[in-house]
Amino acid sequence: MGKGHRRCEICHINEAWPREEKLLFTSFPLNPDRCREWLKRVGNDELVDLPIEKLHERRNLCSNHFRREDFNKAGNRLNRDAVPSLNLIAPPLTDEQLLPFPQHIYKPSESRGKLYSCTSYFRAVSPALLGSYWS
Ligand SMILES: [Zn+2]
């Protein structure tokens, strides 16, 4: 995957592909409840096994899957509670398929088995990512 170019997990449109209409790409929410709802609607059970921090960092949906009212007035940011509802191509995941979610990133070298919270992970790795979405 090309570095820096986001890709939609539903229609696989790449941010870099030329097109007439400008699409907005939004990463998966860090909030477990909202992220679970996104995963359910995207319908790809391979994503369930990824840590929620990775989903937030690397995986995106394009604006083809959200209604106009899911965005703010300027149309450049998704509302906090928006869930994908348009142009969904896979059947929703079942509760059973969603059972492994949420996974988290571990840092075994420093403290074996200790669960790192999303917040401390992002504070350590990339402060810029904190608060760039959903705020
Ligand atoms: Zn898409």
Automatic annotation (TrEMBL):
InterPro entries tied to this protein: THAP_Znf (IPR006612)
SMART domains per record: DM3, THAP
Keywords assigned by UniProt, alphabetized: DNA-binding, Metal-binding, Zinc, Zinc-finger
Keyword Membrane found: no
Record-annotated THAP-type domain positions: 1-87
UniProt KW Nucleus keyword: no
GO molecular function: DNA binding; zinc ion binding
Coiled-coil stretches: none
Name the UniProt record assigns to this protein: Uncharacterized protein LOC126911838
Gene of this entry: LOC126911838
